[in-house]
């Protein structure tokens, strides 16, 4: 998706924002456009209070003078606007390609609604083509890996489990100090069952299946922005 299309999807989501709202700010290249546009609205006098889903987003928002808070100070948000790696049937999502899945899910779950902005390539018939991120505790990593491999086997994963690293080969570390396994399923036929199975592994902090959270998606295409509702 071109940067122009990303911005069009972000602009469509911005139409939902009203003065006085408490807003969750997503992470990623498309969400970044939303934050930029929101900053312009704030400069023009929009009153809002925002919770960022990552340190990167927090830095961007602060540079634009967007008022920030946290979920210790307030307990509910009106809306969260974020991107997605895949959008499946019923607006089930895979998120976490950027490594912010835990905070993204906490913020989304604390919101009255979650709005996703993405491009048409992210819309799929079944989740799983994109690797599923699984955030894990460092302690007992070998035991956690073996337990996750059993879950992959039970759910007929087509690929393997890989510990995420950066370009230099160093383990990727989340804002919360955790590690991420990427699980290559190919096709996830039972996302709800898989979600429960993953969360039953003691070393798993959270995973990138976002089920029942997204209420609407603005999908950018070369012909304009499509709206998907749950």
Structure characterization notes:
The chain has helices spanning 3-14, 29-43, 55-63, 101-109, 141-154, 191-199, and strands at 21-25, 48-52, 79-82, 86-87, 93-94, 114-119, 132-136, 161-163, 179-183, 204-207, 209-210, 214-221, 224-229. It is of the alpha/beta class. It has two domains: 3-120 and 211-221, Rossmann fold; 132-206, 2-Layer Sandwich (Alpha-Beta Plaits), CATH 3.30.70. The strands form three sheets. Strands 2-1-3-6-12-13 form a six-stranded mixed beta sheet, sandwiched between helices. A four-stranded antiparallel beta sheet has the order 8-9-7-10, with helices on one face. A three-stranded antiparallel beta sheet has the order 4-5-11, with no helix packed on it. The model has no long low-confidence stretch (mean pLDDT 96).
């Amino acid at each position: 998706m071109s940067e122009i299309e990303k911005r069009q999807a972000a602009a469509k989501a911005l139409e939902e924002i009203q003065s006085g709202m408490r807003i969750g700010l997503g992470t990623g290249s498309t969400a970044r456009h939303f934050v930029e546009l929101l900053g312009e609205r704030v400069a023009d006098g929009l009153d809002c209070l925002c919770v960022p889903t990552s340190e990167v987003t927090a830095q961007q928002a602060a540079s634009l003078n967007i008022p920030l808070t946290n979920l210790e100070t307030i307990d509910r948000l009106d809306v969260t606007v974020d991107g997605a790696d895949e959008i499946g049937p019923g607006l089930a999502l895979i998120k976490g390609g950027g490594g912010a899945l835990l905070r993204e899910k906490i913020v989304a779950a604390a919101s009255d609604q979650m709005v996703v902005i993405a491009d048409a390539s992210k819309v799929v018939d079944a989740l799983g083509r994109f690797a599923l991120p699984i955030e894990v505790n460092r302690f007992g990593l070998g035991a956690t890996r073996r337990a996750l491999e059993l879950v992959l086997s039970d759910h007929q994963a087509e690929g393997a489990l890989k510990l995420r690293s950066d370009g230099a080969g160093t383990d990727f570390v989340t804002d919360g100090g955790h590690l991420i396994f990427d699980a290559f399923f190919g096709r996830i036929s039972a996302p709800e069952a898989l979600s429960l199975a993953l969360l039953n592994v003691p070393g798993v902090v959270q995973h990138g299946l976002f089920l029942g959270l997204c209420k609407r998606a603005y999908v950018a295409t070369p012909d304009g922005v499509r709206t998907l509702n749950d």
